[in-house]
Amino acid sequence: MIMANVGIMGAGSWGTALAVLLHKNNHQVTVWSINEDEVQMLSEKREHTSKLPGVKLPDDMIITSDMESAIHGKDFIVLAVPSPYTRSTARNMKSYVAEGQIIVDVAKGIEEDTLMTLSQQIREEIPQADVAVLSGPSHAEEVGRGLPTTVCIGARTEKTAKYLQDMFMNEVFRVYTSPDMLGMELGGSLKNVIALAAGIADGLGYGDNTKAALITRGIAEISRLGVKMGGAIETFNGLAGIGDLIVTCASVHSRNRKAGYLMGQGKSMKEAMDEVQMVVEGVYSAKAAAKLGKKYNVSLPIIDKVNEILFEGKNPKEAVNELMLRDSKAEHMALPWKE
CA 308 to CA 160: how far, in whole Å? Predict the structure, then answer.
C-alpha cells in the first residue's frame, strides 16, 4: 500500500539517499533534477555513480527533469538542492506549489546578502507553502545504506511535524520533532564552518585534543549566537546542534571537513572545493556567520579565523596559534564562585 506521494527536488547524494529511504517506507517517490545528464544516468543505471555509488534506486522510482510533475499532487516535497541554489529553485517552484503544500528543506545554509535561513528564503519565495526542516547527524552515505540514524523535524505546527515524523521514521531512521526551526537551521549551518576548522586542524597534523577543543568551543560559539537570535539552548545541545557538529567534524564522509583538511595541507579554498567536487556548504555560510556575529554583537573567534583563512589568505597554523593565545578567561562566565 502506498502511504504518500512524494517529490524530491534535487538528485545529489542527500536527495538520492532520502528518496531510497522514503521508498522503503512505501511512498511513491519522484526525483527531480535540473541536470538532464544526471536524470539520464539515474534512469539508466538506477544508481548515482559519482555521489552515492552502491545505493540502488528501485525500478518504480520516477526520475524526471520536469519540475511541475515532481510537485503537482504530491503530499509533501523534499527540497534537497545545495543551499546556494535554494532561493532560485524555490522561485521556480512557486507556480506549481499548492496552498498549504508541505515543503521539507534538508539542506543547510545562510544567505550571505540577506542573512536569511533556508526556510525563510523558501517562505519568502513560496508564501503559500507549509515549510519544515529536517536536520541532525545524517550523512547520505550511511542513510543510503540503511545504517541507524537519528534526526529532528522542525515545523511551525505540531501537526505538520508529527505527520512528517510518521512519513520518514522507520527501524533505522528515528525522527524527533521540534518547534525550534530557527535554532535547528542555525545549528545545521554554523556547524559546517566549525567543521572546516576541524578539517584544517587535521590537515595540519593536530590530534584528538585539538578536535575535541574545536567541537566543544565551536558549539559554545553556535549556542551564543543562536540563543541571541532567538533559538533555544536545548536545540544546540541536541541532534541539530552538538550531534550534527560532532559527525561533521569527525567523519570521513564530511565534505566540509575534507575541504578544511586540504586547506590545512596547503591548498587554496578553490583548489580544495574543486577536489571535493561537491558544494562545500561551510564556505558559503562562513561570511554570513561572521556578519551575524557582528550584527548581534556575539564573539565568534573560531568562525572569524575560518573567514580569515578562506578569504584573507591567513596562514592556518598562524590562525590556530592566535586562537590559543587569546586572553585567558573562565569557561562559563555565568557560573559563580562559592568563595
Answer: 41
Decide if 90 contacts 116 (C-beta within 8 A): no
Whether the CB-CB separation of 102 and 132 falls below 8 Å is answered with: yes
Other C-beta atoms closer than 10 Å to the C-beta of 100 total 9
Task: Give the residue among 170, 155, 15, 7 at the shortest CA–CA distance from 75.
Answer: 7
CA–CA separation, 108 and 185 (whole Å): 7
pLDDT tens, position by position, 227-265: 999 999 999 999 999 999 999 998 888 888 999 999 999
Question: Could you count the other beta carbons within 10 Å of the beta carbon of residue 145?
Answer: 14
Which 8-state DSSP code applies to residue 216? H
Calpha distance 297→242 (Å, rounded) = 22
What's 278-307 look like in SS3? Answer: CCCHHHHHHHHHHHHHHHCCCCCHHHHHHH
Residues with catalytic function:
191
- SS3 state of residue 147: coil
